[in-house]
UniProtKB/TrEMBL annotation:
Keyword ATP-binding: no
Organism: Diploptera punctata
The keyword rRNA-binding is annotated on this UniProt entry: no
The protein, known as: Sugar phosphate transporter domain-containing protein
Chief place where the protein resides: membrane
Sugar phosphate transporter domain segment(s): 51-327
Length: 341
């Protein structure tokens, strides 16, 4: 059926035939929107991958190369930097988020608890394990995220996505079966970090979809609500005393790396939220593991704590291949969410 489609100019309405011009206009708009959406998807994922890569290397340097004893204090520094940067940015009018009131905690819960667990166990695992094994074991967070999206968001991944995830997990299990530098504490920390990462991705997707606090509000209040509990925990465990007694505070190179880690913590949190907003929680999790393609091989040099074995090395490469496969499957798909079931 032919419909008159009106374009309003400054003088009058000009009617044209929609079977020709209307379709063209809508097609152009659709193409433009699709292009912009694809740019935001890929751009936010790349931004997150770069930030995640940099902070992993910096954290490893601070905790292992410089032997900083307290990963909890490093986490507190990252939370404090997030609060200061966002508060100053809000005061300068560079960004905005809702004011603190009695409803904010209800709106954001349980993200603060997940946030602190993710931060503490992530830094603890970074300290205890070599970067190659850390990055391989982090791939279990992808499986947990996929299950979480299926259970809580009713999002069913495609068969290709499932194959790529299972490939990553198989590689991780092969690598772990012959880890000559096995650390039970490190493995426990990383697997707990995986669980918190999966929970964070799924919960954050639901909070972002509700659009009550926005991405900056989630960042600010996550850090604000958990800063004092984290400081109390560090004091109880003796981490504050260990950090105070550390003899590297007069080393300018250490201070630069420590400061960079604190600032990058804020940047990383922002990129996680941005990537989750424009992609799925599973995509955000896998991008975090995909950057480990670089970290995995670089980590065999950085830190000096990787012990080579052929079985371990083959497992790492299988897991990396799964990460590459998932990235290809994800970003070649049409710009639409996974099917709901």
């Amino acid at each position: 059926m032919l419909i008159d489609f009106a374009f309003i100019s400054g003088e009058e309405c000009i009617k044209i035939n929609a079977s020709h011009a209307g379709t063209t206009s809508m097609g152009t708009t659709s193409a433009a929107e699709t292009g912009t959406s694809m740019f935001m998807r890929v751009g936010s994922a790349a931004f997150y991958g770069a930030a995640s890569f940099l902070i992993t290397v910096v954290n490893k340097t601070v905790l292992t190369t410089y032997h900083f004893p307290s990963y909890q204090v490093l986490g507190i520094g990252q939370m404090a930097a997030t609060i200061v940067i966002l508060y100053i940015s809000k005061r300068l009018g560079l960004l905005d988020f809702p004011r603190l009131d009695s409803s904010v905690f209800r709106k954001i819960w349980p993200l603060p608890l997940i946030y602190i667990g993710n931060l503490v166990f992530g830094l603890g695992g970074t300290k205890e394990l070599s970067l190659p094994m850390l990055t391989v074991l982090r791939r279990f967070s992808i499986l947990m995220t996929m299950i979480g999206e299926l259970v809580f968001l009713s999002i069913k991944p495609s068969a290709a996505v499932q194959v790529s995830v299972y490939t990553m997990i198989a590689g991780a299990m092969i690598a772990a079966s012959n880890d000559l530098a096995f650390s039970p504490i490190g493995y426990t920390f990383v697997l707990l970090n995986d669980a918190f990462t999966a929970s964070n991705g799924v919960c954050m997707k639901k909070k972002l979809d509700s659009a009550e606090l926005g991405k900056h509000g989630l960042m600010f209040y996550n850090a604000l609500f958990m800063l004092v509990p984290a400081a109390i925990l560090a004091w109880i465990t003796g981490d504050l005393d260990s950090a105070y007694a550390y003899n590297g505070w007069d080393n300018i190179f250490f201070l630069v790396q420590f400061s960079a880690s604190c600032v990058m913590g804020c940047v990383l949190t922002y990129t996680i939220i941005l990537c989750t907003l424009h992609n799925s929680a599973l995509t955000t999790t896998v991008i975090g593991c995909l950057k480990n393609v670089c970290v995995t091989y670089l980590g065999m040099i950085i830190g000096g704590d990787y012990v080579f074995s052929w079985v371990n090395f083959i497992g790492i490469n299988v897991s990396v291949a799964g990460s590459l496969l998932y990235s290809w499957v994800t970003f070649k798909r049409p710009d639409k969410p996974y099917p709901h079931i």
